[in-house]
Model the fold of this input.
Amino acid sequence: MIRIKNISLIIITLILVGVNTYGQIGYRGGPFNITDGMTITPRAGVNFFYGSLADEQNMGYSVGVTIDREMSRILSARLNIISGTMQGTQIFEGSNRPYANFDNFYTEITIGGTYRPLNHIFGYFKERGVQPYALLQTGFIYFDATEYWGPIGDGPDGSEWRTATGVAGLASAGGGASFWVTPSLSANLEITGTYAFSDQIDAHDVWYARYDENMQGIGEANTTNNDFYYQVTAGVSYLISPSLFRNDSRFNRRSYNKTRRFFQPRSGRSSRRFLFF
Done:
């Protein structure tokens, strides 16, 4: 828990520093509106589990939503909710046959921040064709996992070995990119790696050299490291309300031309091109 609190403090500090440094530059005065600069991104994709039972078939599926709000020209705060299923199979050492496998249902809820390097390096530009970002977040995961015996396990093939249900803290980092489509829509691709502060995401947190007829462990208990997983998702971002931050002056003409081309009648539009910088 101490590590989770430290990570949360770091994220909050980074957001506050960004707001203080860049938040007022180019910001139009006016009443605060929580939806200004806010996007909502439904997303779906796959996850890859790396824990005790991850030798084979460790790909699952994920679906969720991200709410992101610009806090400064380079930083934004985000809330991410994602659910799905995980799975994995452990291969018995020295053979190619499964010893055990698992599946689970999970939901993770995280808060964090994103950093947009191109806005920092080249200047703030809302209509940038590709907007990469790095992210850091923390939160918790709820999991409901079941482990099954494999063909060469100590129990009948496919029979339930053990279950685990619980809530654990997590820390996550990664990155992604948004691809400008219209003034209010963009495509999104994101990759995150998540460290869970639990070894029960696959229900396999302890094992023994042998088991008796009641499936009780015999001998010394062996434990493994906490679980880790990747998520790769794609989505479509919808801008609820434009940000109050102005483009850098160097991009004023490009911004005008790009948005004007978009709103022209279809027959009168010229060919579009991405404006990166």
Remarks:
- The chain is about 15% helix and 50% strand.
- Residues 15-27, 268-277 have pLDDT under 50 and may be disordered.
- The domain at 2-27+35-249 is CATH 2.40.160.20 (Porin).
- The helical segments are 2-22, 117-121, 252-263.
